Amino acid sequence: YSIAVLISGSGSNLQALFDAQDAGDLGGAEVNLVVSDRADAYGLQRALKRGVAAAHVPLPAAPAGAARRAARAAWEERLAAVVATFQPDLVVLAGFMRILSPIFLQHFPDRVINQHPALLPADGGETVLTSSGLRIPALRGAHVVPDALRLGLNITGCTVHRVTPRVDDGPILAQTEVPILPTDDESSLHERIKIAERQLIVQVVRELATSGSLAGQG
Ligand code: GRF
């Protein structure tokens, strides 16, 4: 069961998958490819250290307008071609900070999942009901950790979901609540969220690898 992981940053979620694989705790799944849009993503070094294929597929700068849209489409096709080479059973977005459109997604139907560092509602709505019966805003986009702090929430979490063309939406595979402490700043909160993320992504990948199918998962 082959996995490709897309990252943009440090790759601590990726490392959790490597560690689980080494511990025989990933349901027999193997991470065989790591791809980043950023050359300086430390996650690429983590892959190279283990002899796992690591690819940098940069998003070329282009003047706004038609040229940028064309460059973006070409980048998604290139990304898909690199990933498709490894014929992954699953593509994991773990801290991948680019939005992927059907140009990419069409190549991997129902087999792309994303780790989102906030709670998301099953109905794609604007609020989430927590286990304690509190209704809080559903946080989407690239700044949900500082958003949770700024909103003065005392709870947030992380969600692994199937990727659909709508950003930070799609069927939820698993999620964990994470408390926000009065003393938290962005880094302390994000570290606590990442602890939960590492456990969540391993659990979901193991279940998908052992259940043998993605269809109907969540
Ligand atoms: C994770 O919190 C992920 O949910 C978010 O960006 C962070 C990436 O962290 N999208 P890392 O690169 O896995 O350490």
Automatic annotation (TrEMBL):
The active site is at 116 (proton donor). InterPro entries: Formyl_transf_N, Formyl_transf_N_sf, GART. GO terms for biological process: 'de novo' IMP biosynthetic process. The record marks 168 as: Raises pKa of active site His. Signal peptide: none annotated. GO terms for cellular component: cytosol. N(1)-(5-phospho-beta-D-ribosyl)glycinamide binds at residues 11-13. Pathway: Purine metabolism; IMP biosynthesis via de novo pathway; N(2)-formyl-N(1)-(5-phospho-D-ribosyl)glycinamide from N(1)-(5-phospho-D-ribosyl)glycinamide (10-formyl THF route): step 1/1. Keywords: Purine biosynthesis, Transferase. One of its GO terms (molecular function) is phosphoribosylglycinamide formyltransferase activity. It catalyses: N(1)-(5-phospho-beta-D-ribosyl)glycinamide + (6R)-10-formyltetrahydrofolate = N(2)-formyl-N(1)-(5-phospho-beta-D-ribosyl)glycinamide + (6S)-5,6,7,8-tetrahydrofolate + H(+). Residues 3-205 form the Formyl transferase N-terminal domain. It comes from the Bacteria. CDD domains: FMT_core_GART. It is an enzyme of class 2 (transferase). Its EC number is 2.1.2.2. Coiled coil: none annotated. (6R)-10-formyltetrahydrofolate binds at residues 72, 97-100, 114. It holds the Pfam family Formyl_trans_N. PANTHER family: PHOSPHORIBOSYLGLYCINAMIDE FORMYLTRANSFERASE. Catalyzes the transfer of a formyl group from 10-formyltetrahydrofolate to 5-phospho-ribosyl-glycinamide (GAR), producing 5-phospho-ribosyl-N-formylglycinamide (FGAR) and tetrahydrofolate. Belongs to the GART family. This is Phosphoribosylglycinamide formyltransferase. The lineage of its organism: Bacteria, Bacillati, Chloroflexota, Chloroflexia, Chloroflexales.
